[in-house]
């Protein structure tokens, strides 16, 4: 079992999950912040850049710093967050007004809201909550994890905003 799990997300995702989605945080996580530093013959060394927290951090940081309106990572997150709001509204988990507020917030947010933050998730959470991503859904052969039900009390955040 990992000592700590790491996940890099845009601040916007954290903000919406905390304020609109009942403080329930769904994250993809890794046992290492920078899997490229893992030993060459370890499973962690096989984690793809798109799932490596340090690479996600760098991609978001560059997009925010350079105000890249065509950033794949930010645009992917925008689509995902709006779809989540629509799905949660359809399921009765949020109101139509909350759905519309989420969509407006995502569409009109300043670049600063897309800055990367790092979740530090200690292994003190119940191991039954940490799910290994099936091989067919991974970006590569390295281990990836999903935690579907974190609350703010389950993790710490590093926010490098300056």
Task: Describe what you observe in this structure.
This protein has 162 residues and is an alpha+beta fold. The protein has one domain (4-159). Helix content is 33%, strand content 20%. The protein is built from four helices and six strands; from the N terminus they run E-H-E-H-H-H-E-E-E-E. It has helices spanning 11-19, 53-65, 72-90, 96-108; strands spanning 4-10, 25-29, 116-122, 130-132, 145-150, 156-159. The strands form two sheets. It has a three-stranded antiparallel sheet with strand order 1-3-6. The mean pLDDT is 94.
Q: Strand percentage, roughly?
A: 15-25%
How many H/I helices? 4
Question: How do the strands line up in the largest sheet?
Answer: 1-3-6
Poorly predicted regions:
none
Number of strands: 6
Which range best describes the helical content: under 10%, 10-25%, 25-40%, 40-55%, 55-70% or over 70%?
25-40%
Instruction: Output mean pLDDT.
Output: 94
Q: How large, in whole angstroms, is the Cα Rg?
A: 16 Å
The total number of structural domains is 1
Per-chain topology:
Layout (H helix, E strand, L loop, with lengths): L3 E7 H9 L5 E5 L23 H13 L6 H19 L5 H13 L7 E7 L7 E3 L12 E6 L5 E4 L3
